[in-house]
Amino acid sequence: xxxxxxxxxxxxxxxxSPTAVELDDTGFADFVLAGTRxxxxxxxxxxxxxxxxxxxxxxxxxxxxxxxxxxxxxxxRIVA
Length: 80
Ligand SMILES: [Zn+2]
Description:
By secondary structure, the protein is mostly beta strands. Helices cover about 0% and strands about 25% of the residues. It has strands spanning about 30-35, 40-45, 50-55, 65-70, 75. Strands 1, 2, 3, 4 and 5 form a 5-stranded antiparallel beta sheet that branches. The protein is elongated. Bound molecules: zinc ion. Zinc ion binds near residues 44, 46, 47, 49 and 62.
C-alpha cells in the first residue's frame, strides 16, 4: 500500500443525473471519436466542420481531427 494512484470515485450520489458521456466537460454535448459507427449530424470539435455521417466517423477533412461533437441530443449509435 505504498502507491497512491488515481482512483475513480463513484461517490457521486446526490446529483441524480446519469452520465453516459465519456468526455463531459461541456455538460451538453456528446463527443464521439473517429471510427465509431454512428448515424447523424456531427461537428468537428476542433474546427467546427459539419458532416452528416451514416456509417463510420472519418477523420475531419479540414483539420484531421478525430473528435466529433454530436449535433443532436442523442446520436443514434449503431451497435455492430
Ligand atoms: Zn476539424
